[in-house]
Amino acid sequence: MLETGFGPGIALTEFAKNHPAVNLYGIDDSEDILTMALNRLNKVCGLRQICLLHGEGSMIKNVQKMFDRVYSINNVTFWDDDPVYTLKHIRSQMKACGKSFVRFTRMRIELLTQRQKCLGDSWKLFFIIQDFSHIEIMIKQTEPNNTVCAAVVNQ
After folding, report:
1. Phi and psi torsions of 98, nearest 5°
2. Is a pLDDT exceeding 50 seen at residue 111?
3. 97: nearest Cα among 73, 123, 69, 71
4. Can you say whether the dihedral through the CA atoms of 126, 153, 136, 145 is positive or negative?
5. Do residues 28 and 6 touch, judged by C-beta distance below 8 A?
6. Cis amide prior to 8 (ω within 30 degrees)
7. What is the bridge-based pairing of β-strands 2-4 and 67-73?
8. Alpha carbon of 87 to those of 54, 81, 128, 148, 154: distances in Å?
9. pTM of the full predicted structure?
10. Which contacts of 87-92 are long-range, i.e. CB under 8 A and separated by 24 or more positions?
11. What is the DSSP letter of 1?
């Protein structure tokens, strides 16, 4: 499993504790965040199945590993300058029928329902361009802002 933009490593740490047999990978472009995540992971004894990488999401193409699950939570706005380019490289590292989940939340501004739908439609197009299938875009009622989520399958 791969997390793009792992932040302080909270999700990876919790998943590793609950699923010790699963190998986990994370990539993030912030050295400060990488240090923070490593500090968090080092405090938890026995977590040996996590590999953290420093770099842009598209750099995952340099890893000799195929993933069956990829997720990204609240960080796609940091994906290089071209999210389609990043998706291309993430998809190239996914196993056939691998699944991906992306969640987007705008933290600074309240999005109107129409703008959320546009965001979802834009990402649906990005997924189509990269030949993902079974694309599902959802708008979840959350506080303080609604959340746009996408779930897709690698063909």
Report:
1. -65, 155
2. no
3. 69
4. negative
5. yes
6. no
7. parallel
8. 17, 12, 11, 17, 11
9. 0.83
10. 87/126, 87/127, 87/129, 87/130, 87/132, 88/58, 88/130, 89/57, 89/58, 89/59, 89/60, 89/61, 90/2, 90/4, 90/57, 90/58, 90/60, 91/130, 91/131, 91/132, 91/154, 92/61
11. -
Taking phi over 0 as left and psi of -120 to 50 as alpha, with beta for the rest, 78 belongs to: alpha
What type of residue is 67?
F
State the sign of the Cα–Cα–Cα–Cα dihedral 25, 29, 35, 39: negative
- The rounded distance, in Å, linking the Cα atoms of 46 and 29 is 26
Rg (CA), the chain: 15
- Tens of pLDDT, residues 45-87: 666 788 999 988 888 888 889 999 999 887 776 676 777 888 8
